[in-house]
């Protein structure tokens, strides 16, 4: 009878439970994965992960461990084959979207924390700690031979490392051979150490953060900065290396850069098996597509290069990453996309995020053990500690403060003497007001502004302000003669005439207040020139400048050459290469002298101590009772093919004591046009319309006579070249100007502005070749 009962009727009266299966599942959940991460300061830490954890979990743990805020520039690398040396081509980046255990083959996975995306300019980094991590990475790149650089640059960069670690040079403490135990550059010799020592002496007063910023600022100009090389062969089977950077794809041969394909030139990148392809944008003069192919070593290396291109283009060129495409069953090609944040998002987020004040200890350089081969850190697996030394007041434990942030190269907010009206000969006065408890000691740096028509007496009794270098508080100097004592008496509110905005002006609560009730006494020596920074120009001249022109010579003439130069100009603006080339150009021609400006009788006639006219091109006054010197240069700009020479006199804004000299110069030169590029009177007519038919030089001045003055000269020269149907190479124009007056075009932002203006004038037809030059 039981057999006749259906199975459905008995289904509710029975059951089973897999005890062993549940036990095994529990054990699997309890098992964890140990991941050891080696950091840039040679320390390491082991993180415990769930076996099924994805790469993003490990990255978050690492960033949390470091308390890193600007984390999108960094990543973790691991060796695809654990038996291979970690610095070889077998290194791969951890994919955040995949499980960690599926990416590493060994049980005890070891990862290396590294910079993945090298920032194009260190001033984009908001946090000092982020810049410090970049500093550590580049220092390792140099020591391991990954970043190739000339000896002169290596010594300069190493001197900033010494300044960061040892502080200011002190003869009593830094005796002969004090650098011999520091591992600073590969192949370090005694001669190099002497050069580094001399450069170290010039960095006096720089904090570790400032020295590291200068370190990064010079490193970014190197050809192999931030380049991860991939071995390949070209169409002729020659061995080359392909590198991916923020500006595009770079081709090297024997560690020498031979070609650059910027992102703005590339239409498409692809790979198929061991072949890697890039399709270039069709130029206006071409009626065909250009497809370049490279043979990689393996399929894996070809795909790794392709992924690196996708990641770098997305990070540096897009505002936000592209959405991951939907997967279709029949799709065979790779659909990899970069899913992280872009540089634009990171920088914008940093602008709106409150600054974090934190304290961290800087890691010292490795010591050289003579007679023992140094093993790279990845092979040692342990921390190398430096010998203990007594703490000093300038040691490397530094609190990161917002006020110590190095200035940005392109930000106009940094007060420059060439940004506004005329400044009289007033020294920047630095006063330190100490409260009784010593808890609040602000340092005030202020400059009194006045114009040439002010009736203020004794305007030239102060030392001259520096123009191109940031002002720092000099060490007290005891002078024997020629002293002038200045006493400043505060008003009823304790002010010394300094108009400083802050506190209630910005709706910010006052945390501490200290009102001075005494008399401020300053003892200065007028007309004193301090040449402590003399000779530092070589730091920016150790590499020859270059210009952005086609690699191969071409015979294009007329409109073709002009159009090609405009395409190159647009490409340089888009890729950032234009600014990089400008920053490598010398500011002063090292072969020209400025001796007249240094004479005692002429020092009062200079608005800024480091802006001096070349002797060979200076304007010489003939009938002036005050002498023949004025801070002005003749600048002649020839327009090839037209017979036109635009003549200028580039000069500083007249001081109250040099107004007569200024008008004497205008009279002797026969000038009928004076261009005033200041914010006092900005109602002048168009310069080009006013100078029609002129053969006399036009007098152009701003404050120093180099910044806005250079912009005007470059712009008019470029417009004349366009009208004459000649190619426009802005860097050549700047070089020609600087061969006649030092430091023309003051900074990168002015150079970028005028280049954009030239390109816009051409593309919008504001300036076009004249009929007589179009034939």
What do you see in this structure?
It is globular, with a radius of gyration of 32 Å. It has 5 domains: 31-115, Phosphatidylinositol 3-kinase Catalytic Subunit, Chain A, domain 1 (Ubiquitin-like (UB roll), Roll), CATH 3.10.20.90; 122-147 and 149-221 and 363-386 and 395-401, Up-down Bundle (Acyl-CoA Binding Protein), CATH 1.20.80; 228-347, Roll (PH-domain like); 417-528, no CATH class; 547-773, Protein-Tyrosine Phosphatase, Chain A (Alpha-Beta Complex). Strands 9-8-7-6-12-11-10 form a 7-stranded antiparallel beta sheet, covered by helices on one side. Helix 15 (707-723) packs across helix 16 (730-738). Helix content is 26%, strand content 16%. The model is unreliable at 369-480, 498-506, 527-558 and 681-690 (pLDDT under 50). It starts with 6 loop residues before the first helix and ends in a 12-residue tail after the last helix. A hairpin with a 5-residue loop joins strand 6 (228-233) and strand 7 (239-244). It contains 17 helices and 22 strands. It has 775 residues and is of the alpha+beta class.
